[in-house]
Design goal:
Blueprint: E1 18-20, E2 51-57, E3 67-71, E4 74-79, E5 83-89, E6 92-99, E7 115-119, E8 124-131, E9 137-142, H1 144-151, E10 155-156, E11 170-178, H2 179-182, H3 195-209, E12 214-223, H4 230-250, E13 258-262, H5 273-276, H6 281-287, E14 293-301
Parallel strand pairs: 2-8, 5-10, 12-13
Antiparallel strand pairs: 1-9, 2-5, 3-4, 3-6, 6-7, 8-9, 11-14, 12-14
């Protein structure tokens, strides 16, 4: 990659069934400019490299005003009770935001971090507006069968033109750091990080900062070998990824773009070490070395794609 302008938006990770939605004041339910709803159908055919989402608001789910929906900061619709709206989304990470428009805020709601959701390629993902324990709207993820059936019971919201023009982040580059260069055996904290590991992280951070690509997200992913229990390996991978994320942030990469996660032993690069060396622990340890790693993956847009 070339010289990078880090213009990432804040992202939080984690698989979420219920997504908190930030709401402010908006157009009232009685606004005369809102046109009647129209009959419509969900387009279930989605191209291989794209994603689609449907947001549903049942007539009795949430009283009051129309809820504005934003996808990655772009306006999708103002959703009335008894309506649904379908729109495009990015494969992978997306920011969903809902708000009642308040012109006094200068429409700052659309640039708020919102909630991060990960959407699959070539599929329609469904969400419905519900009320949380405090009576505030939230978006709840639905499975495809339930979501389609629910959408078919509503009318399509068509009173405004959507303005979603996606600039989706794509994989740009992956750096792989060997755990043996980062940490002593069984260690994961920053105080225990080896000098070689700190040097390699500084070099990676400098390379990222020198790139000209637009980087939206930097994923730090920990991996282990299959020795030990699944639970232990998962925790170790998460802790090592978190420490590397900390080190990258200390090298002046934006914390809002950095996302740490662990995969444990689920993504082995070498999977036959147990079979090859069933009685030789030293040979297994050497064989498993590629599995013990931390990956740093960049997502965004290359300079020639902007």
């Amino acid at each position: 990659m070339d010289k990078t302008s880090l213009s990432a938006f804040p992202i939080r990770t984690g698989l979420m069934t219920t997504l908190a939605v930030v709401l402010t004041a908006c157009v009232s339910a009685g606004d005369s400019h809102l046109k009647p709803l129209a009959s419509g159908e969900v387009a279930t055919g989605v191209a291989e490299q794209t994603a689609s989402m449907v947001v549903i608001r049942e007539s009795d789910a949430l009283p009051g005003q129309a809820v504005n929906i934003f996808v990655n900061g772009e306006y999708l619709t103002s959703l009335q009770p008894g309506a649904f709206r379908q729109g495009p989304a990015c494969v992978g990470e997306n920011r969903l935001m809902a708000s009642y428009t308040d012109v006094s805020t200068g429409y700052q709601e659309k640039v708020a971090p919102g909630q991060a959701v990960r959407l699959p390629a070539a599929e329609v993902s469904y969400f419905r507006v519900v009320a949380d324990a405090q009576g505030q709207p939230v978006l709840q993820a639905l499975d495809a069968e339930s979501g389609l059936a629910l959408a078919q019971q509503q009318q399509e919201q068509v009173h405004t033109l959507r303005r979603v023009e996606l600039q989706c982040a794509v994989p740009l580059k992956t750096y792989t750091l060997q755990a043996s260069a980062l940490f002593p055996f069984d260690k994961f904290d920053y105080a225990s990080m080896l000098a070689q590991g700190k040097t390699e992280i500084r070099q990676v951070a400098a390379d990222i900062a020198a790139s000209q690509a637009r980087i939206d997200r930097i994923e730090v992913i920990g991996h282990t070998d299959p020795e030990g229990s699944d639970a232990y390996n998962q925790q170790l991978s998460e802790r090592r990824a978190s420490t590397v994320r900390q080190a990258l942030a200390e090298n002046r990469l934006p914390t809002g773009a950095l996302v740490a996660s662990g995969r444990g032993e689920r993504e082995l690069l070498v999977s036959d070490c147990r079979a090859r060396f069933p009685r030789d622990a030293r040979q297994r340890t050497e064989c498993d070395q590629p599995n013990r790693r931390v990956e740093i993956k960049l997502f965004g847009q290359a300079p020639d794609a902007r």
